[in-house]
């Protein structure tokens, strides 16, 4: 799925003393299948960019297009048919009081008209168990366990699996490993990379982990003060090192 942001500006608290221009006439075209890592200091506009694409907020000016369709006024729940998001906080994106199985069923209904009764027949249970087996976490025998009892790494891994239950085309990764220990973070990113390749997803990946920014994806974007300051293709094939990216932050 191609994503095209054309001269997008987003200002908060307009005409007030605390006015903030989060994005300033930003244009960005992401081709189908691209894995774009986005870095920048706090307040640079990274999260605002994802909020706009997800439909949580609307731009003040400019257009956001998916496959040449303007989605400026399309609400987030309608965009969820094509767009999935994994947040920094493992508690987000799932229903902690519901079982693993019911969370997967909700994910499978994303973008569809919801029903009062959520069916989980034998075929669906087997489909979920098959997916869980791939994680090698032993969760395939715990599908009736509440999601809220799982560790952060387990929840993030399951959230990633749930993003591909439907025919999602665009994946927004909002610092998905920031709250995890190094081992869990590696597991989650390895899984994410596999699912992205298998399902040929287009990805916007926000991270403060410079090693991850250089290790994954095929494009690196540096945002500063609401503008794109650097746009580098195939960063992992160049001479960039994590320290180089940290030095960019000193410039901001």
What does this structure look like?
- The protein is of the alpha/beta class.
- The protein has a single domain, classed as P-loop containing nucleotide triphosphate hydrolases (Rossmann fold), CATH 3.40.50.300.
- Helix content is 32%, strand content 24%.
- The strands form two sheets. The chain has a six-stranded mixed β-sheet with strand order 6-7-8-3-9-10, sandwiched between helices.
- 35% of the residues are buried.
Features:
alpha/beta; 8 helices; 252 residues; four-stranded antiparallel sheet; 32% helix; Rossmann fold; six-stranded mixed sheet
Query: What is the helix fraction of residues, given as a range?
Result: 25-40%
The best one-word shape is: globular
CATH architecture: 3-Layer(aba) Sandwich
Number of strands: 10
CATH topology: Rossmann fold
Structure in a nutshell:
With 252 residues, this protein is α/β, with parallel strands linked by helices.
Any chance you could write out the topology, listing elements then pairs?
Blueprint: E1 3-12, E2 20-30, E3 35-39, H1 46-54, E4 61-66, E5 69-70, H2 76-79, E6 83-86, H3 100-108, H4 122-133, H5 152-163, E7 170-174, H6 182-199, E8 202-206, H7 210-215, E9 219-224, E10 227-233, H8 242-251
Parallel strand pairs: 3-8, 3-9, 6-7, 7-8
Antiparallel strand pairs: 1-2, 1-4, 4-5, 9-10
Helix pairs in contact: 5-6
